[in-house]
Automatic annotation (TrEMBL):
Lineage of origin: Bacteria, Bacillati, Bacillota, Bacilli, Bacillales
InterPro entries in the record: Aminotrans_3, Aminotrans_3_PPA_site, PyrdxlP-dep_Trfase, PyrdxlP-dep_Trfase_major, PyrdxlP-dep_Trfase_small
Source domain of life: Bacteria
Name of this protein: Aspartate aminotransferase family protein
PANTHER family registered for this protein in UniProt: AMINOTRANSFERASE (PTHR43094), AMINOTRANSFERASE CLASS-III (PTHR43094:SF1)
Single annotated GO MF: pyridoxal phosphate binding
Organism whose genome encodes this protein: Siminovitchia terrae
Record-level GO cellular component terms: cytosol
Amino acid sequence: MSDINWKQVEEWDNKYILRTFATQEEYESVPIESTDGDYLIMPDGTRLLDFFNQLYCVNSGQRVEKINNAIKEALNRYGFVWDAYSTDYKARAAKYIIEDILGNENWPGKIRFVSTGSEAIETALFIARLYKNRPLVVTREYAYHGWTRGASSVTKLKGVRSGLVETDAQEEPVHIPGQQDGLVAIAPSPNCMRCSLGHTYGSCHDESGELACVKYTRRMVENQGKEKVAAMITEVTQGAGSVHPPAEYIPQIRKMTKELDILWIADEVLTGFGRTGEWFGYQHYGVEPDIITLAKGLSSSAIPAGAVVVNKDIADFMDNHRWETVSTYSSHPIAMAAVCANLEYMMEENLVEKAKEAGEYMKGKLLDLKAKHPSIGQVAGFGVLWIVELVKDEKLTPFIEMDRNVTHEGDPSKFPINIINEKAIEKGVLIGGFVPNTLRIGSSLNVSKEDIDKAMDALDYALSHLDAQMVLEKSEEVLT
Ligand SMILES: Cc1ncc(COP(=O)(O)O)c(/C=N/[C@H](C)c2ccccc2)c1O
């Protein structure tokens, strides 16, 4: 690969590619020449340990030989056939998910494959509204469900709602005219450390033990008119929004959706396929959804793939109708070959159990860092998906006061997550987050203990800089 002219790559990159999250002037090209396991390799040979796991989507690790060989083999048979045709790859992928992983004696009925997570969300919202014949959907603050029209209508995390931000903006981003979708109600996020309802965890439960945020959500649905509400969509732990709920939240939400006769869409795009130490995140809570959405770990991002799994009643309903929809690349045979190989690899290598073990090890290391660094206010998560809340004092005050309600205006380099990111890169580790005060940490499911140690050492080094900033700010407060 040394014959690549990376100066030429940078020139064309700057000249012809539309940017996201940075103006052209702010943009800095970061060339990646190849990848390996949990590492990105730059043209000069620098190896970066990726504790974002890209976007928490390379569950089996980079360039798995079994997956690559399956893609090559499929290329000896197919270019492309569209979804009207049956292939062994599509049928096997469906069988693996419904029968072998979820268990067809349980809730799942049928699956539809698409190409991305946002398409899976669009499909799930369509199906829910068609099945219930109702227009409204309930989402939550800080939710991230994708960028397409329907998916972004249930995405409420500021800063990733496809708006445009002037670099010196003082107000809300320019939202897309006509994008505001009145068919969505916004419930509180179960963010106990910074509760939107002003409660403190442990004293917010009512006499039945129901959390205040669940009670608020229930009241909201009743006020909207539950006969108008098709579904509630949730992540079991908010990925981009970086909120990990108390253990009782998901079971209480599930109980509420059943009592109100609305569907529960569990968005497992990010938490699915072993990321949390179970095959799917909802399985931590002893509940069963009506619909789940899948992508990322479905193929471990070797080739883009997404899917929606619906329960038996919805599957029967859909089977008795001619559904007037099509997506060119739905169940693309090469993508399905990658999905089959990825799932076989995960089952053969017992990756879900490995993620659970890695998670226990990671938790111990993060709690050690919490004991050492006053800038850590909270550690929460499971499997290879953790949050670290960064605070500037023992009162758990966030460094950036607007916290999750901030967009990308002003100077994001002052965000604690970016300070940590900058310092950790000095140790060859990519680690950071998507909301100003909260690290969102993840790796592949089969990350080695050595690499966890390397990432934690880099985080330790970076946190020391944040602690120093805390001391500096405190001394300035004392002096002023
Ligand atoms: C719960 C969930 N649902 C749907 C989608 C949409 O999937 P897509 O991108 O259309 O394939 C995503 C995407 N995550 C984005 C890329 C992310 C994740 C973590 C931090 C920052 C961003 C997601 O997390």
